[in-house]
Amino acid sequence: MPLSIETNCLHLENEKDGDSVCSHYSSISFPIYQTATYAHPGVGRSTGFDYSRLQNPTREQLEMLICELEHGTDAVALSTGMAAIALLMELFKPGDHLIVDSDLYGGTIRLFDNVSLKNGIKFTRANCAEDNLEALITPETRAIYIETPTNPMMNVTDIAEVSKIAKRHKLLLIVDNTFMSPYFQTPLDLGADVVVHSGTKFLAGHNDTLAGFIVTNRPELQEKLRFLIKTTGSGLAPFDSWLVLRGIKTLAIRMEKAQSNAAKIARWLKTQKSVVRVIYPGLEEHPGYKIMKKQARGFGSMVTFQLDTTEKALSVLERVRLIKYAESLGGVETLITYPTTQTHADVPEELRLKNGITPQTLRLSVGIENADDLIADLEQVLN
Ligand SMILES: *Cc1c(COP(=O)(O)O)cnc(C)c1O
């Protein structure tokens, strides 16, 4: 019987095969192989490790773990989420066209608009949760790129439905799975071809390191990605790989606790006079609720909400105490973000407003503190 995800976060399925690099000394914690290079046992012979830009045992252990959690056939670990998405763009050539969701992480939009476009890649933005994507496909279209739920507006796209369109037109379906993590959602099982992650967020989980991942179940992509990481050199360092391995040990309990806190806070926010809208896919009135029930095992812990005035929104950021006003998400500490000037500052204002990111919009990444303590902190700023 395959192991469940809680167990897999701590134990790789294949770790019993006595020759893993960890078998010396039987250490429970995987060692940090802080080495740049490896000696060869003879001419034309290799231990499988030649140079740490290509491969490193600690990084490889983490890659095997991410691959297993996301149900892929290969995963690569990179220095940041943006390094992962930038590497992925190297799969495309000038003239290629991508359909991308219009509400994405701000850094991804900045990459597409300022770097990929200059490299000749063309983009059409769409609301992938609602628009007829088939009508946007051209002979040059190579991929569809989505987040679900999106950052920060929490739009939910039906991955299986979009994957049918992608398969019909031989396009790659790429899903940024950062918000859900493999604990709650495994897009490859739903027909996606590639999953990307900011490992900085829920996977690492402690607001203490940056990381990124690309996972696929397509052998031809696997080989290209391995070639690209070796050539461009953005692989994750051994110590950071170890930090993410350690973070993932508690992924299951962190995700559950953060989610139950988020649900409680979302319901409480709805009762507040100055809060005009609460966007959390675990609320039954959320338009993506039914799709989430079908394609995910939970709703996550990201809650976006809108206040009645900009002044109120800014005063929340000024006056929270326990909750920290900071960029990033997915860590054990609760953070509050102002997308307008932080994560989405480089998104053109017109697009930002069109996506619904108003100056009254705040985004909470709910952590694992006591929910009532978090509510008390919000209460003292809202009332
Ligand atoms: C943070 C984030 C990224 C970028 O990851 P970094 O690790 O910060 O480079 C990409 N996608 C999403 C959804 C994110 O939240």
The number of strands is 12
The level-1 CATH class of the largest domain: Alpha Beta
Query: Rg, please?
Result: 21 Å
Judging from the principal axes of the Cα atoms, what is the shape? globular
Q: Widest sheet: strand order? A: 1-7-6-5-4-2-3
Number of structural domains: 2
Q: Portion of residues in helices?
A: 25-40%
What's the N-to-C terminus distance?
A: 53 Å
How many alpha or pi helices? 13
| Helix/strand order | HHEHEHEEHEHEEHHHEHEHEEHEH
Biggest sheet overview:
7 strands, mixed
**Mean model confidence by pLDDT:** 95
- Quaternary state, please? single chain
Structural class: alpha/beta
Distinct ligands, ions and cofactors found in the model: pyridoxal-5'-phosphate
Give the second-level CATH assignment, the architecture of the largest domain: 3-Layer(aba) Sandwich
- Low-confidence stretches are none
Structure description:
- This protein starts with a helix and ends with a helix.
- It folds into two domains: 5-248, Aspartate Aminotransferase, domain 2 (3-Layer(aba) Sandwich); 252-382, Aspartate Aminotransferase, domain 1.
- The chain contains 13 helices and twelve strands.
- Helix 3 packs parallel to helix 4 (106-116).
- Helix 5 links the parallel strand 4 and strand 5 (172-176).
- It has 383 residues and is an alpha/beta fold.
- It is globular.
- The structure holds pyridoxal-5'-phosphate.
- Pyridoxal-5'-phosphate binds at residues 80-82, 105, 107-108, 147, 151, 176, 178, 198, 200-201, 210, 212, 329.
